[in-house]
Amino acid sequence: NDGTGGVSVDTGGDVEIIQEGTGRLKSVGGVFLGGTASANLLDDYEEGTWTPAITINNSSSGISYASANGHYRKIGSLCVATGRVNLSSKGSSSGYVQISNLPFTNNNVSTQSGLTTIDYVYSFSSLINDNIAISPNQNATTAYIFHITTGGAITEANLNNNSQFAFTLSYQTT
Q: How far apart are CA 84 and CA 118, in angstroms?
């Protein structure tokens, strides 16, 4: 190795990869971090954009958006998704509100498997201190929106035609 780029293997078997300028490393089968046990294999990394949507009682009838956008980063089975939804019409359905179209399917577990922060809430009805949270549904690409204090569902009665919210959701994928 002349210091401009290449691969070298020392007498202990450690591999050093140097690629001057780009700093990129490509591995087809993944990279072991901190040991060679299967739990240490990082074999999936992805980032991109997604379009969050809402459904009311599993229907999107009449719902329209001024804007809806999001970004995600998936490292192994952990997905961190951010999103912003700005409604222009909440539609005509009644019932519980869910976020739909998550970038990946949530893991099928029997306990709550996600963590959320609500970064911004505007024009929701009957909320105390905008106290809402999001929990991803089992084995699905949807997430339940609920009142933190009561655990009850956010329903169409809590939405207005101009409701807006932004969030960060971390969850385990399948």
A: 10
